[in-house]
Description:
Blueprint: H1 4-9, H2 15-37, H3 41-63, H4 69-94, H5 97-124, H6 132-154, H7 163-199
Helix pairs in contact: 2-3, 2-4, 3-4, 3-6, 4-5, 4-6, 5-7, 6-7
Amino acid sequence: MKSSRHRQYHRIRTLPNALSAARMVLAIVAAVLFLLTGPRLLPVLICVLASLLDVLDGWLARRRGEVTRLGEHLDPLADKVLITVIFLALVWFLRDAWITVLVALLLLREWGITWLRQFIQQRHGFTLPADRLGKWKMLSETLSGNVFLFWLSRLPAQRAPGGAFTAILVAALAVTLMLSYAGAARMLIRASRRAGSTAS
């Protein structure tokens, strides 16, 4: 007979999983609103809500003992969808070369790690949950992205963002990139060690 812990790990209908799915839906709704209305307050607030749900679903999963196999894949995927919407919105509205390059590097890392997690799970049969650095990275991404979207939404429609806005955003993106790639390097080391121990 399977243990209760094993059955819990393979559950699908849990509150944290539902919140992760809701975050993906909210991110898509925000993306549509950005396309339809531009940098307005409503889609920004939807992104903020989705970011807060990210904190809530992780806390609930640990508090309720509902860390599941689906959640280990759905939660980071919801993160990536939300981050992609937030930063592509900034690229779309600002049309700045430096910001475009930095965001491209950021999203390359985000989706590259998603592919790596999937590859490791299929090849070696284990998952790589985010560590503390990864959680700080996600916090810095959502905080900086939402702050700058909110700032942009408060500017008069006829007024373009000034040089200070762009300079501060570039600096914030640079810090976020350092955290992101440092976290990616740590994840690669963890994956290599664990794959080695599994093989042996």
